[in-house]
Amino acid sequence: MDFASPERRRGGEDSLWAVVAVIGRVIRIAEVFPSRAQALTDQAWREAQVRAYAGFLERTEHPAPRYMIRPIRRADLPRRWKPLPALGFLHGKW
Predict the structure, then answer these.
(1) pTM for the predicted model, two decimal places
(2) What is the C-alpha R_g of the chain?
């Protein structure tokens, strides 16, 4: 998955912001948005969900995902991509 640098992304109608979930070396696109502000809001919500379940994650020894945002082009989205629930990795949707 090649995330374009902000310099290469200026303009262009296929420019999006991806909220990316990372566990170890595995990276998944959790959600995409047309604006950075929307992506930041979603990232904060996902991080809050992980914090709310922190005790459960520790007891069950599930690694908690880290969320970050990255610029992405629409063409770089996987063909069958679907949004990832904030705690989807607990239900095998990782």
Answers:
(1) 0.76
(2) 14
Distance, CA of 62 to CA of 94 (rounded, Å): 12
User: 69: alpha, beta or left, given left = phi > 0 and alpha = psi -120 to 50?
Assistant: beta
Which residue ranges make up each domain of the chain? 13-91
Closest listed residue to residue 42, CA positions, set 52, 32, 51, 50: 32
How many helices (DSSP H) and strands (DSSP E) are in the chain? 3, 3
Q: What is the pLDDT of residue 9?
A: 45
pLDDT under 50: residue ranges of the chain: 4-9, 11, 94
- pLDDT value for 91: 61
Contact status, residue 30 vs residue 20, Cβ threshold 8 Å: yes
The answer to whether the CB of 87 falls within 8 A of the CB of 50 is: yes
